[in-house]
Amino acid sequence: MLKNICRIYRYNNDKIYKYRIIINKMIDIKPIREIGLSDNEAEVYITLLTLRETTASQIAKQTKIARTNIYDELNKLIEKGFVSYVIKNNVKYFKPINPNKIINYLKEKEWGIKSILPALNELYKPIKEKANIEIYEGKEGLKIVLNDIIRTKKEVYSFGASDKVKEYLPKFFIESYIREREKNKIIAKQLFSEGTGVIRTPVSVFRKLPKEFTSPSTTVIYGNKVTIWIWEEIPKIIMIESKATSQSYKAHFNLMWKLAKK
User: Fold this and answer.
1) Could you list the pLDDT tens digit for every one of the 262 residues in the chain?
2) Cα–Cα distance for residue pair 114/15, rounded to 1 Å
3) Domains identified in the chain and CATH numbers
4) Burial profile 175-186: b = 16 or more Cβ within 10 angstroms, e = fewer
5) Residue 45: which of 83, 81, 17 has the closest Cα?
6) Can you tell me the distance from the alpha carbon of 67 to that of 172, in angstroms, rounded to the nearest whole number?
């Protein structure tokens, strides 16, 4: 039945919203609740997959959850790593994470979510290609991006390399992230400034820049993604998914790499 619905609407952009709503109504949210979300959180996440990027007021309108409560639900989802946001013209727009990342987030637990991934991915399919920007917060946000680096299995390039991440995730970084990089032979080329601490591993290569290049943030490039890590009390990561942007950053990195000291 789902395939027939997709076939009816796929070629009519004017009806794409109705198509997403129909799939939404067909999804059993019970497996999503079982991974640790409340009924309201599950409803908000499914609605965000339908709307793709929207404001809190629009989510409240679609879910019928009171506007006084909707920010609480969204903040819980951001904390758990299921939702990110971007600010445009002083207005905050909320976005769902790619459903496939749920498996990375809960990879040690094989929950019933796998049974609804095809339907969730139908909702997530982009209508047209464009740069995608997401923001992740807190320790869970760091884990999502680190797991995404492993999943991508592409060489990693970073500016402003430091040992900051180890302060937030000492056990996870060494026992999970580094171990998986070694297992998958994912090499990281890292530029760091004199006087900055680094974490040396068998799959990391370092080159040194003068002290004046010291930065309070870290830029990490992998695959088609550029991520900017902001080291505050609650860390934030801005992720830009764009092939053109990634290629530009890599070209800049390679130039700096040639000039840096071994």
Assistant:
1) 333 333 333 334 444 444 444 444 456 666 666 667 788 888 898 889 888 899 999 999 888 888 888 999 999 999 888 899 998 888 999 999 888 777 666 665 555 566 677 777 777 776 555 778 999 999 999 999 999 999 999 999 998 867 788 889 989 998 999 999 999 999 999 998 877 778 888 999 999 888 877 788 999 999 999 999 999 999 999 999 999 899 999 999 999 999 888 8
2) 27
3) 2-124 (1.10.10.10), 133-259 (3.30.870.10)
4) ebbbebbeeeeb
5) 83
6) 36
Contact assessment for residue 16 and residue 127, using Cβ atoms and an 8 Å cutoff: yes
Q: Taking the model in full, what pTM does it have? A: 0.58
The backbone torsions φ and ψ at residue 186, rounded to the nearest 5 degrees and listed phi first, read -90, 110
CA distance 195 to 214: 9
- Name every residue whose Cβ is closer than 8 Å to that of residue 49 and which is 6 or more positions away in sequence: 20, 24, 96, 99, 120, 123, 124
126 SS3 class: coil
Place of tokens 């320790």: 139
Q: Which residues of 202-222 are buried (b: 16+ CB within 10 A; e: fewer)?
A: eebebbbbeeebebebbbbbb
254: burial class by Cβ within 10 Å (0-12, 13-18, 19+)?
A: exposed
- Give the separation between CA 60 and CA 66, rounded to whole angstroms: 6
Closest CA to 107 of 35, 170, 32: 35
Token duo for residue 239:
């992720």
